[in-house]
Amino acid sequence: NNVIETRTADxxxxxxxxxxxxxxxxxxxxxxxxxxxxxxxxxxxxxQAKVFIDLEPIAVTPEQPVVVLDDIxxxxxxxxxxxxxxxxxxxxxxxxxxYPDMVIMVKAHTDNRGSxxxxxxxxxxxxxxxxxxxxxxxxxxxRISGEGYGESQPKVDCGTGCTEEQHAQxxxxxxxxxxx
Length: 180
What we know:
Radius of gyration: 18 Å
CATH class of the largest domain: Alpha Beta
Structural class: alpha+beta
């Protein structure tokens, strides 16, 4: 979870890195007027690996600008902001600076492991850490609020048979525009 290097892609959207084969890596991609994307590069012995990051275009018109706020995700049983989460939150901060009247509400969630009481407390810690991160970047406290919802609003309603990936999708903070 450390930033090793930042590069700009060529005109074809390609970038090349030399990395250690025995390590896992994460890649993040961003481009103006596109939603952010991430991808994992698993450890392996293959001398070359092609990794694709899909960035979806954001349709913006002068009359009705569209603001896309991506969710951030948390590690199991934790409320700290991950490197990937910070990347998304930095884009949220830039959006809030671009639209100075915008007010955001953070809705933080957990997966369904743990008691209801514990998950509610954990989701409140996640909401607080998300809000604190944005405030620490210079956004006024009055422009962002947060609340935990525990496991009550899963993104993937998989019951007791959730895969690890489904659990991970449920451990998130999402953003609601309260005032545009």
